[in-house]
Amino acid sequence: MSTTDGWKAVTPADEVEEDDVVCVTACGRRLAVFHLEDGEYVVTDDRCTHGEASLADGYLDGDTIECPRHQGVFHVPTGKAMSPPVVDALPVYPTRIEDGQVWVQLPD
Ligand code: FES
């Protein structure tokens, strides 16, 4: 894992297929790396804000992810909670693609 100026390379971009999501760990955080069907990459926390569930195991439908545990729904690009029982937004981190890697900027 590479780090420069607070940015971390978390996975090769080509390891996340389009319309898919994978779970990675960086700096002690479990992250979900989304590659949406429009080509955009988005990195969020992997843990659902409602409970202990991995969103990378959820159902990705366009730009929304359904939690596998209680079927709460988040809007991936903004992290907005869209459907009960989730009410708290999902943290979304600044993300960029460089040198074939997905880079994310995490808070300290
Ligand atoms: S743990 Fe995700 S909706 Fe309950």
UniProtKB/TrEMBL annotation:
PROSITE patterns: RIESKE. The keyword Repeat does not apply. It comes from the Bacteria. It holds the Pfam family Rieske. One of its GO terms (molecular function) is monooxygenase activity. Residues 7-104 form the Rieske domain. This is 3-phenylpropionate/trans-cinnamate dioxygenase ferredoxin subunit/naphthalene 1,2-dioxygenase system ferredoxin subunit. It comes from Pseudonocardia ammonioxydans.
